[in-house]
Amino acid sequence: MSKGSQAVASPSLVANIKELDSLSFLLERPEKQRIDRAPFAYLNLFNALYLFKNILFWDWARIKLFVPILLAILACNGLVWLLVHWSIRLRAYMRYTTCSDLHDASHCQVNPAAFSGAKEIVLLQRRQLDEEAELSFLYRKQRYCWNSEAKQFERLKYPVEETFGTYRKSTGLGTESRVLSALERWGPNAFEVPLPSFGILLQEQLLAPFFVFQAFCVGLWSLDDYWMYSAFTLMMLVLFECSVVMQRMRSLKELRSLQAPKQVLQVYRNGKWDRLPGDALVPGDILSIGRPPGVGGEERTVPADCLLLAGTCIVEEAVLTGESTPQWKAPVGAPAEGDEELSEVDPSARLSIPQHKGHILFGGTRVLQHTCDKGSRIRTPDGGCLAVVLRTGFETGQGQLMRTILFSTERVTANSWEAGAFILFLLIFAIAAAGYVLYYALQDPERSRYKLLLNCSMIITSVIPPELPMELSMAVNASLMALMRKRVFCTEPFRIPLAGKVAICCFDKTGTLTSDNLILEGLTGLAGRGQDLVKDVKQASPEVLRVMASCQSLIQVDGDIVGDPLEKASFQATGWSLNGSTCVSPKQGKHKETASVLHRYHFSSALKRMSAIVKVEDESTSMPVLWVVLKGAPEVVRQFLAHPPADYDQSYKRFAAQGARVIALAYKRLPSSTATSELRSMSRDDIESGLDFGGFAVFHCPLKPESEPALRILKESSHQLVMITGDAPLTACHTAAQLHIVDRPVLVLQHRGQEAGVGGGPDPHHQEADGSYEWVSPDESVREPFSSDRSQAVALASQYDLAISGEGLGHLHDIRAEDTFVPMTQVFARVSPDQKEAILRILRGAGWTTLMCGDGTNDVGALKSADVGVALLAPTAVSHPPGTAPAAAPVAGKAPSGAGAAAAQPGGKLPGGKKGQQQQQAQAIIPARGQSAVPNGIASQGKVLANGPAGQQVVKKTGGYGSRMLENLEKQGKPVDERMRRMADWMDSMDTGDDGQVPMVKPGDASMAAPFTAKESSVMPCTDIIKQGRSTLVTTIQMFKILGLICLNSAYILSVMYLQGVKMSDTQATSHGMVSAGLFFVISSAKPLQTLSAERPHTRIFCVYVFASLMGQFVINTAYLIYMYTCAIAMMPAEDAQKPDTDFKANLVNSVCFIIQFFIQLSTFAVNYMGHPHNASLRENRPLFTTILYSTAFICALLFDVPRGLASWFSLVPIPDIIRYKMVGLGISVLVVTYVWEHWLRRAFPEPLPPQKGYLAFVEADKHNRMQKKQQ
User: Fold this and answer.
1) Burial code of 614-626, b = ≥16 C-beta within 10 A, e = fewer?
2) Apex CA 300: angle with CA 266 and CA 946, to 5°?
3) Which of 184, 224, 538, 559 lies at a C-alpha separation of 20 to 30 Å from 65?
4) In the beta sheet, which residues pair with residue 665?
5) CA–CA dist 894, 522 (Å, integer)
C-alpha cells in the first residue's frame, strides 16, 4: 500500500463509461490519524489543561493572553473543517490515504467527465452474491461493479445481452432463493428519491463557499459599526438561500410523486402466477402486461424495461422519446400458427436494445392496446402479453430521464474558469490598494492596528462580489422561466448560454422541417403509362393497389387508424378498409378482395424497405392465393426486381428532384403449392427475390408553415444551416433550396455507377478508390472528379454547395477525410442515425458550437451529441370520446381489432385457415399529445383545458396576478387606466405560476432525446432558444462588468479615500446596498427582442472590448470622484475633518462622496446595460428604467434637500450651491462620456461573425498559417 498525499486518477479503470473520467482508490484513516482532526484535538486538549491550571491559580494576566490564542486555534479548526467540506481533493488528503491495490481500499474517488456531475468520494461495497464476491460502488443512483478479468469497473450488468434463444426459454424465477438473490443484486424496482428535511438542506446551502464568504464579509462590516447594513445584507442572503431550499424541496416532492403508480401485476414465479406490485419486480421475472378490456379499463404503465415474448402491444413512448406515433411492439418468440409477426432474429443472436427496440417495452410508457397469444408456451391468466423483465429502477428508460432531471439543478454554477480568472484580475487591484493603505498607515504610530487589519481585509474581500452567485442564478432562472412560458423545457440549464454561441444549426427533414401529413400525389412508372403521373390511384392494377393497402403496419385504436403518415396516406387513397390485419377492397361489381397479412417484416431505417406475405381471397375464386408485397427506397427495391424497367431511374428521379418522396412498389405471386407452414422456414432473401415492379408512389411532403421563416431568421442572424436527413439526396437538395440552406448550385458526392442523387452502389465489404466517386449536379450537367486533397475540396466548395450521401460519408470515413469535407457540406442525405451522430461530433471537433433539431427518435444520438439539442414534441388534438371519433379511413365492422393480430371475430377463422386465438381487445383512447405535452393544465397562449359539459374539452383562459387584480377592480366598479393595464401586463410576465420559482421539468415535459424539449410541431422554438441564450450571455457579461466596476470603485474608496477619513454612515451603506440589490434583480430579468440580429453577443469576459470598457469607465468615474472630493475638502472647515479610525461624522466631504458614489452606481447600470440588438432597450425594460429614474430623483432630492430634512435623515450636511452645480454638470458629462466610450467600444470591437459557409473557415485558417510562416 502506498500512502501518498494525493489520489492518483486512473482512467484505465473505467470501461468506456462516458459519464466517468477516472477513479482513485482511498483507504480511510483512523480517527487519531486524520489530519483535519488529530492536530487540533491535541492542541485543544493542551490548551484546556493550560487554561484550567491558570484558572486554579487565578493568573488572569495569562488567561487574557491565552484566550485570543484559543480563539485563533478554534477559528483555524473551523476553517480547515470548511475547506475539507468544500474540497474533495483536500478531503481525500486529510481523511484518506491513497491505495495502489484496489482490494485494500475502503473508498473510491469518482472523477466525472465534464458536465456529468461533481466529484464524490463513495464507499466501496463488498457483497457476497451467489457464492461470488462483488466489489462495487454507487454513484448518482447507478452501481458500478469491478470486473476482475478486464481489470475495470463496469456498470452493473443486467440480463440485456443474452441470446434470443435464452429469452424464449425463460420460465421466470423458479425458487425463492433466486428471487432473493436477484433482489440483493439489483435491488427493488423503485426510484428512491430521498427527501431531506428543510434544516438539512438549509445547512447545506449555508455551508456553500460563497455564502460563508458572504457571511464573513457581513461580519467585517459589522465590526466597522455598519450594523444596519450588515443585518440587511445577511437577511437578504438568508432569505435567498431559504427560497432555494424551498424550491429544491418542492422539486424533490414533485419528482417523488411522478413515480409510476403501484400497479398490481400478474408475475410468474415458482412455477405459478401470483399478483405482485410493480416495485417487487426484478430482472428475469416473467409477467403479464396489457390493458384491461373496456373503455373504463385501468390505464397500464409499463413498470420496467421488458422484452416481449408473446403477443403484440401498441404503446405510447412520447414521454421518453417524443415520438408522436404509437409504437408497435412485436414478440421475439417463434410465431404461432397464423401469427403475422415473423421474427427475424436468430435464436443464437444476442439482444441489442438500440437495434431491437421494436421488441422492448420501455418503463414509463403506456400500453394503449394489446393482443395476447394464447398459444404461447406460458399462458397468461388475464389475457395479457408475455414479457420478461430486463432492467429495473434507475436503469430503465424512465429512470435515466429521472436521473437527468434529479441532478440537472446542480449544473447551474458561477464557478467557471472565466469567473475565477476575472476575480483574480480584480484581486490584483485589491492587493495593490491594501498594500497602499498598509504602507501609509504603518507610518502613523497612532493608527489602530486592529482597524488597519480590518480595513485591509475589507479591501481584499470587496473584489469578490457577494451577490455574484445569486445574480447569476437569477439570470439563469429567468431564462428557464422565459423558455417554459414558450413551452420549451430544459433539463440541463448550463446549455442555455451555449445556445447564444451557436454557429451551426442542423435540422432533420421529415417531421421536423416538413409536415408529417404526407400527400399522395399519384403513381408513376405504371405498366403502359410510362413516366406519366396517374393522380387517381384507383386506376392502377389490382396488384399495385394490393401492395399499397396491405404492405403497412397501421393499427386501429378506438376506430381510428393510426400509424406512419406515409402508410396512412397510401392506404386511404386505395379506398380499402382495415379490420385488424385484414384489408378489404371496395366492392367493384361482383368482386370483393380480402388480403390477410400472414407474415410481416417491419420497416427498418437500416434496410430502407418493408415487406409482407398476404393471403388474398376473392369472391370470384374459391382458392386463396399467397402474395409477397414490398415497398421501399427505389435504389434498394431495384436489386430485388426480376426485370427492372429501362427507365426505372428516370421515372422517379424527375419527381425526387422536385422534392417529392418516392417509394417503389413491388410484388410477386407465390406458387400455389406453397403451404402456410412452409413460409416460416423460408429466408427473407428467398421471399423478397424475383419481384415484379409495380410502380412508384409519389408523395408530396409539404413544408411546415414556420420552417421557411424560422430558417430565414437563422440565416440572417449569422448562422450556418445544415440539413441531415435519411431522405434521398435529390429530395433533400430540393427542400434545402426552399429553406435557404443551399443558395448556390449543388454537387452531390456519389458512386460513379449510380444516377445522381440515387445513393448506393459501393461494395460495403471493400474500400473503394477515390476514382470510384465523383461530384455530380442533380441534373447531371456538371461532373467533377472527387479528390481527397484539401485544397481542391476548398476550391470546389467555394463555387458549389455540397451534398453528401450516407455511402459517400462512409467512403470519407474509410479514407479519413470526413474532418475535411463534413464542415464544408450543407446537406447530408440517406444517412443512418449513427452517421448523424458522427456528423455532429465532427462539427463540434472543428470548433463550432452546434444546434441540432429533430423529432427525438432516429435523431437521439445527434441530439445528444450537439451542444444544444432540441427535440420537438408536437401536441395533437384532444381525442374524441369513445364512439364519437370519426375514423381516419373506412373500417370494416364496428368493433376495433387488436393491432397486429390475425383478424378474428369471435368464432371466426384466422388467416392461416385454422380456428385460432380470440384477441384480447384493449379499448384505449390515444393519449392526446396535448395531455402529456401540457402538464398542470398549461397550454399554448396562456390557456388551459378544463372539463366542460358532457365531458367535452373547453378552452379556458387563465391569467397571472396582474390580470386577476384587474378583474377584481372591474368587479368592484373601480376605473382601470392604461398605466394600470401596463403594470398588470408586466406583473403577468413576471408571474411563473409557481410562487416565483422555476418549476421542475417533468418527464411529461422533457424527453430522453435532448436537453431541450419544445412542445411545438415547428422549428420556430429554435429561434426562441437562441434568443434566450444570447440574452443570457449578454446579461452575464454585463453583470461581470457592473460588478467589476463596483468592486474597483469600492477598493479605491476603502483605500485612498479611507486614509483621508471618508466614510459612509450605516444608513447610507444600507440604502446603497438596497438600491444595488434592486437593480441587479431587475437587470437579471431582461427580455430578449423578438428578432434575432446578425450581430452576435460577446461570448468571453477576457476580450479587448470588456477590459477596455472596464478600465476606461473606472478611470473616468474615479477622476470625477477625486475632483469632487478635492472641491469638498477645499470648502470644508478644518474642524469638520474626520480622522480615519474614528466613528462616522457627518461633514461636507462624506456627504459629497456618498452622493457621487450613489450616482456612479446608477450610471454604471445605465451605461453598461446591453439592450439592442439582443435585449429590450433601457426604456423598454420598464422595471430597470423606472428603478433608475426613481433612484436618480432620490439622489436629486438628497442633493437639494427636498423635502427639507431628508438629507439630515441620511446623515448629510448642506452642500454649497457651487458644489451642487459642479456635481450635476460633471455628473451629466461623466454619464455622456462613459456612454459614448462604452458604445464606441461595442462598435469598434464586435464579436467576430462565423463564416456563412464552412469552407470559409478553411480559407481563413490557411491565410493565418501563411501569415505566421511569413513572420517566422
Assistant:
1) bbbbbeeeeebbb
2) 155
3) 224
4) 631, 695
5) 30
Grid cell locating 1025: 432558444
Among 139, 174, 171, residue whose Cα is nearest residue 155: 139
C-alpha atoms less than 13 angstroms from C-alpha of 879 in its C-beta half-sphere:
18
Q: Strand, coil or helix: what is 175?
A: coil
Coil, helix or strand for 784?
strand
The pLDDT assigned to 287 comes to 93
Beta strand 720-724 with 692-700 is: unpaired
**CA atoms lying within 13 Å on the CB side of residue 227:** 1
| CA 511 from centroid of its chain's CA atoms | 20
Amino acid identity, residue 607? L
Structure-block grid coordinates of residue 1026 = 437562441
pLDDT digit string, tens, across residues 171-220: 888 888 889 889 988 988 887 777 788 888 888 888 877 788 878 888 88
Rounded-to-integer distance, Cα 432 and Cα 862, Å: 50
pLDDT of 888-942, one tens digit each?
A: 333 333 333 333 333 333 333 323 333 333 333 333 323 333 333 333 333 333 3
Find the range with the poorest average confidence among 382-391, 708-717, 855-864. 855-864
d(CA 1013, CA 368): 24
Cβ atoms within 10 A of the Cβ of 797, count?
A: 24
**Residue labelled with grid coordinates 465534464:** 114
> Measured between alpha carbons, how far is 1189 from 949 in angstroms, rounded to an integer?
51
| Cβ(624)–Cβ(673) below 8 Å | no
Task: Give the number of other CB atoms < 10 A from CB of residue 1003.
Answer: 21
Q: Which three cell numbers stand for residue 167?
A: 429469452
Could you read off the pLDDT of 398-423 as tens digits, one per residue?
787 777 667 754 444 444 667 777 87
Average pLDDT over residues 726-740: 88
Interior angle at CA 1071, CA 1065 and CA 1077, nearest 5: 135
Cis bond before residue 194 (omega within 30° of 0)? no
Which residue(s) pair with 20 in the sheet? 112
Burial of 1118 (0-12, 13-18, 19+ CB in 10 A): middle
Residue 417 dihedral angles phi and psi, to the nearest 5°: -65, -30
* Active-site residue identified among 36, 224, 508, 516: 508
Number of helices (H), then strands (E), in the chain: 38, 41
* Cell 361489381 found at: 589
Contact 661, 475 (CB under 8 A): no
Per the CB < 8 A criterion, the answer to whether 102 and 147 are in contact is no
Contacts of 297 (CB under 8 A, 6+ apart): 291, 922, 923, 924
* pLDDT cut 90: percent of the chain above it: 19
CA dist., res. 656 & res. 641, Å (int): 20
Sign of the alpha-carbon torsion through 448, 454, 460, 463: negative
- In whole angstroms, give the CA distance from residue 483 to residue 497: 13
Residue 748, φ and ψ in degrees, nearest 5? -110, 130
pTM higher than the cut 0.85: no
DSSP string, 718-733: T-EEEEE-SS-HHHHH
Task: Report the distance separating Cα 744 and Cα 735, nearest Å.
Answer: 13
Q: If we measure between CA atoms, which residue out of 911, 1092, 1049, 956 comes closest to residue 342?
A: 911
Cis amide leading into 112 (omega within 30): no
Q: In whole angstroms, what is the distance from residue 295 CA to residue 925 CA?
A: 8
DSSP string of 832-880, one letter each residue: -HHHHHHHHHHHHHTT--EEEEE-SSTTHHHHHHSSEEEEE----PPPP
* DSSP letter string, 1211-1231: T-----HHHHHHHHHHHHHHH
Helix (H) or strand (E) holding 472: helix 468-485
Q: Which of 599, 596, 618, 597 is nearest to 687 (CA)?
A: 599
1059: CB partners within 8 A, 6+ apart: 437, 440, 441, 1140
Q: Cα–Cα distance between 364 and 168 in angstroms, integer?
A: 24
